[in-house]
């Protein structure tokens, strides 16, 4: 799994690279029929043949092409996208970084073969997209006295160890009794108070105290783990009544993180990883789509700037905190290399320089946004369709 620290380290290494750098993104999804038999490797090698700078070799060192091909030919666990970065300096020292992602990125879903290879500045925008789209999330699985917290990142997941280490055996015994009570169906009857003063169900009153005390303690431990790892979304899995009660005990922003409450993926303590993965990821993607639609609603209500010219100008005047861009876009903008400024049209860019250069929006949006403290939000599905139809293909939320 690519964890938080690994992602930060990769990012730092790419930022420090001197140019020129080879950047490659490829669709390697084994479920894609076009990738059967390693056909994606052939497509990548064909794309690399068109970059003459990486084929130079001497009697003392292989070419950068040879080293990259060796890395491509390595067998790796199944993934959907390969990102690869390579550079060879004048002393023959080679930098190679292959990142296999279990998620798709927009750049490789192209008519031209689902491979994009470039020589020059490190092309990190698709990798930044993946970090933006697949936010750090967690899944809490509840089954009686078995509570497990899993971290999801870039389509992968792993259990977070030690979250409940301080809970002792007696606490778990009481928790099991409370969980059995909830699953028995008596919880619903207990919601209506007995006004007769009868104490015939004393255990129910005791259980109410146990539930609140124990469940709140466990939830606080979960919140602590979410905070420590920078988790932004949470999915809870378990018996509905029990999971709903646990969800109600999360406080403030942690409660707002809850994206879904899902059925128990297992009748016992052993969880099928594939089943957990297949349940949680669609729920997280659905939450992302809902958040994208809410962003567009806020932009519409303001209203915020819409269309390339208005949005690019607003970003460069520091007026934008979030810009919404389609998951896949072929839009072009105009760049003034000397000043670093942009225009949504050639005429707009000519305010800053005499000879602006037309460039792909997807290649430059992160640099433009970073320069002016703006966050990029890629949107997909219905939100992407709405962005094109209602907002001219790009829109932004005003900072002020």
UniProtKB/TrEMBL annotation:
One Pfam family it belongs to: baeRF_family10
InterPro entries: BaeRF_family10, Ribosomal_eL30-like_sf
Protein name: Uncharacterized protein
Organism: Meinhardsimonia xiamenensis
């Amino acid at each position: 799994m690519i964890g938080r620290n690994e992602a930060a380290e990769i990012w730092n290494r790419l930022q420090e690279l001197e140019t020129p750098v080879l950047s490659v993104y490829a669709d390697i999804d084994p479920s894609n029929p076009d990738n059967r038999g390693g056909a994606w490797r052939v497509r990548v090698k064909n794309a690399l043949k068109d970059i003459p700078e990486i084929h130079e070799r001497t009697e003392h060192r292989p070419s950068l092409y040879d080293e990259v091909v060796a890395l491509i030919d390595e067998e790796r666990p199944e993934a959907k996208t390969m990102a690869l970065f390579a550079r060879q300096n004048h002393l023959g020292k080679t930098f190679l970084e292959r990142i296999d992602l279990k998620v798709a990125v927009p750049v490789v879903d192209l008519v031209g073969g689902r491979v994009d290879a470039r020589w020059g500045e490190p092309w990190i925008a698709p990798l930044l997209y993946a970090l933006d789209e697949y936010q750090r999330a967690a899944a809490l699985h509840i089954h009686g006295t078995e509570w497990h917290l899993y971290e999801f990142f870039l389509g992968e997941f792993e259990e977070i160890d030690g979250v409940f280490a301080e809970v002792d055996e007696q606490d778990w015994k009481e928790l099991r009794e409370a969980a059995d009570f909830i699953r028995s169906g008596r919880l619903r009857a207990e919601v209506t108070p007995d006004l007769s003063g009868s104490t015939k169900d004393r255990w129910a009153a005791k259980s109410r105290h146990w539930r609140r005390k124990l469940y709140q303690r466990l939830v606080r431990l979960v919140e602590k783990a979410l905070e420590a790892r920078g988790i932004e979304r949470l999915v809870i899995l378990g018996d509905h009544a029990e999971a709903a009660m646990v969800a109600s005990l999360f406080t403030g922003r942690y409660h707002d993180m809850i994206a879904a409450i899902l059925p128990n993926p297992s009748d016992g303590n052993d969880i099928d990883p594939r089943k957990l993965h297949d349940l949680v990821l669609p729920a997280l993607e659905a939450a992302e789509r809902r958040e994208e639609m809410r962003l567009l609603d806020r932009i519409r209500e303001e209203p915020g700037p819409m269309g390339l010219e208005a949005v690019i100008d607003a970003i460069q005047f520091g007026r934008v905190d979030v810009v919404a861009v389609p998951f896949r876009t072929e839009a072009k903008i105009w760049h003034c290399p000397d000043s670093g400024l942009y225009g949504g049209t050639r005429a707009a860019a000519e305010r800053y320089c005499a000879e602006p250069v037309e460039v792909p929006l997807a290649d430059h949006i992160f640099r433009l946004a970073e320069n002016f403290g703006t966050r990029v939000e890629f949107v997909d599905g219905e939100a992407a369709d709405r962005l094109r139809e209602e907002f001219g293909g790009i829109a932004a939320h005003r900072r002020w």
